[in-house]
Write the structure tokens for this entry.
Amino acid sequence: MAVEYAIRPARFEDAQAIAGVHVEAWRATYAGLLPGEYLSGLSVRERARNRRTALADQEGVRQTFVIEARQTGASSRKGAKAAPVRIVGFGDCGPARGGPTRSTGEFYAIYLASDVQNIGLGRALMAVMARHLLRYGVQDAVVWALGGNRQAHWFYERLGGMACGERPLAIAGQSYSEVAYCWDDLTVLASAVDA
Ligand SMILES: CC(C)(COP(=O)(O)OP(=O)(O)OC[C@H]1O[C@@H](n2cnc3c(N)ncnc32)[C@H](O)[C@@H]1OP(=O)(O)O)[C@@H](O)C(=O)NCCC(=O)NCCS
């Protein structure tokens, strides 16, 4: 059975699934980078609650997008169950939250489930978010990545992001650093795929 992927704006009822992807991706991505106790203590329930609040407020330039995976080729017989749909990733974008860069837009987060990484979905999601920001007149944007998250650094560099800042970050009482990647012209990122 084949799988089709679609990117769409998140809805309120996606909160639980987004929280599940978020926690799973944090545990996989930051294992060995952040304290194990902190990662195992992450709560899907708590994230879902925060996510519901954020989604209830969502409008305009600040937006969450999800990636849906749908199995295709399932039986179309009358009475057959609809093909299962699973949320396998999400991204958040909106106005820059301030900080050492002068960017006006920001990609707050992008997380994909482990089994759908490296097949082009991250690139497609970044392009969708760049187009969204451009629609609201936001021409440039920043994303922050944990210093040790090499996969994310390669990904942003591959998509034309330029290292443009660094800042300290405290997690679970320990000190880390974050690296910023900037796009001065989001039209480049927006045209990264045809999605
Ligand atoms: C980082 C992440 C969003 C990238 O999305 P993805 O769907 O896996 O990446 P894509 O398949 O779209 O890859 C896009 C490009 O980046 C490159 N790339 C991605 N990961 C890479 C890696 N580890 N090393 C080298 N290049 C990499 C790909 O080769 C691809 O380039 P190409 O299309 O020219 O071949 C995704 O892997 C993820 O969710 N990772 C875990 C969470 C995370 O780190 N999020 C970022 C937090 S700041």
The first helix runs from residue 15 to 30.
